[in-house]
Amino acid sequence: MNIIYKGKTKNLVESNGKMYCLFKDTMTGTDGVFDTGGNQVAGSKEGAGAECLKVSKFFFEKINQAGVKTHYLGADIDNNLMEIENCSVFGKGLEVITRFKAVGSFIRRYGLYTKEGQELNAYSEITLKDDNREDPLITKEGLVELNILSEDEYDEIIRENKKVAKLVKKILNEYGLELYDIKFEWGRHKDSGEVLLIDEVSGGNMRAYKDGKYIEPLELSRYLGL
Amino acid sequence: MNIIYKGKTKNLVESNGKMYCLFKDTMTGTDGVFDTGGNQVAGSKEGAGAECLKVSKFFFEKINQAGVKTHYLGADIDNNLMEIENCSVFGKGLEVITRFKAVGSFIRRYGLYTKEGQELNAYSEITLKDDNREDPLITKEGLVELNILSEDEYDEIIRENKKVAKLVKKILNEYGLELYDIKFEWGRHKDSGEVLLIDEVSGGNMRAYKDGKYIEPLELSRYLGL
Known about the structure:
The structure is a homodimer. The first copy, chain A, has two domains: about 1-85, Phosphorylase Kinase, domain 1 (2-Layer Sandwich); about 90-225, ATP-grasp fold, B domain (D-amino Acid Aminotransferase, Chain A, domain 1, 2-Layer Sandwich), CATH 3.30.470.20. Helix content of chain A is about 25%, strand content about 35%. The first copy, chain A, is built from five helices and 16 strands. Chain A has helices at about 50-65, 105-110, 140-145, 150-175, 220-225; strands at about 1-5, 10-15, 20-25, 25-30, 35, 40-45, 70-75, 80-85, 85-90, 95-100, 120-130, 135-140, 180-190, 195-200, 205-210, 215. In chain A, strands 9, 10, 11, 12, 13, 14, 15 and 16 form an eight-stranded antiparallel beta sheet that branches. The mean pLDDT of chain A is about 95. The interface of A and B includes residues 132, 136 and 138 of A.
């Protein structure tokens, strides 16, 4: 196996011409506290990688079935490996967030106009993956100006992000859970040029609640019966 | 004169059924240092109000002549008064920025993709006036979600902002000056409902340069021969 890229919670590896995400046991957070919005490695927990992979397998299979193209090809849970399509990211990586309830950075930015927990209509936004600048928000015009996305790519990614977010929301609802917000990443297939959902879809990507109580990222699989 | 609203650098006053901006000698900045991007009152300088009013008169008259509707009706420099149309702001106030060169908060946010002084194509963005949250950037979708602007209002304001920014850039060019970026405010006429350029148009709204050297806000009138 050749390590192509070392990430905070996953490595990108190549073996026999196939690409894989290797899920690690590290978790992100802020100042040592696990936190979905955090940008640092906050610590490590045995089994965290397998946990995120199990949940990702669960969601990617359902997302693929729903007709949204993803980089997911299969999962080898015992070895923490997810086989994936070979994709490149837009710019140096984007996070695309869809929000159903106002929490987290939305409140920190827009608290003058909204209050914690207010309903949002699948409001979506893009932030740049940039740890040194705390993942700044960027507008459609900004992404076009900096040659990161075309206008059409922006519209496609936002539209598909909302579609997948609503699907995950619906699935969670079936398990008695409520989705407040979720972030995804999108990439471009290196051969076909198609826009695909990439990265992972696990507890760390979303804020899910059960009867008003926040579900810790590593607890999600238990609620899904995995 | 009745004070309707006390601002950091201007008061809104009413007299005999007419509305006026009263320009004060206070200046905004950060931690006591004058700074176009600053949000606090950084100090006071005798004549600062008259200076900003003189420059605003100069630009508003040219902007009105160019056919863009503004709240400007006339100026009484001796009394620091600008007679204005009666307008309301959108939400609790917005700043609409058009940038021709990457400086200031644009670099702080997007330094991973751009460098100081890079040309920008009249890139425009809106921030919320909210001192407690450092005037956060907000997208079109965010403004619509929070019922601050409609999609059409957003498009109109961005289009007109670029138009006025380009006009100011052209005027400054005639005086050998270069405009890097500029911020405007827009409001709605309380009777006609029309969208008008409001607030002021002075050195404090813009970053202007002469032969690569930044022009302090209160120095601008001298370069314009006012």
